[in-house]
Amino acid sequence: xxxxxxxxxxxxALLLCGCGDSSKLKDGFYTAxxxxxxxxxxxxxxxxxxxxxxxxxxxxxxxxxGYIKSWDNSYMQNMLTVTGTYPNEYTxxxxxxxxxxxxxxxxxxxxxxxxxxxxxxxxxxxxIGQAVxxxxxxxxxx
Length: 142
Description:
The protein is an alpha+beta fold. Helices cover about 45% and strands about 20% of the residues.
């Protein structure tokens, strides 16, 4: 009985002090990218974690040659005309929301970039999962 009580108290102490809290983010850089190209672009999200906080994030897309979507001025002009937004605008907005909330998947979509908002949610959930595990390998998201 005494042995059972000591083990129970020890387990409770671990729970109360947070030792073994597996939900903390590990310091480092983490990347998630989509498995497939969509309309010629593969979206990705990179984050930097320090002291259990995401302090930097980059969300963008690249084409097969590695060219970054937000650098493509003609793409930007065409998208802005059709949808009212463009990659430099919505990628920065989604990143700032992640940095402010620190919550994967919590996102207010921008009109005209709703498809990218869904992709960003998937990528943020995956990359946070990598940060919790401390696994710096790029995670591929279906």
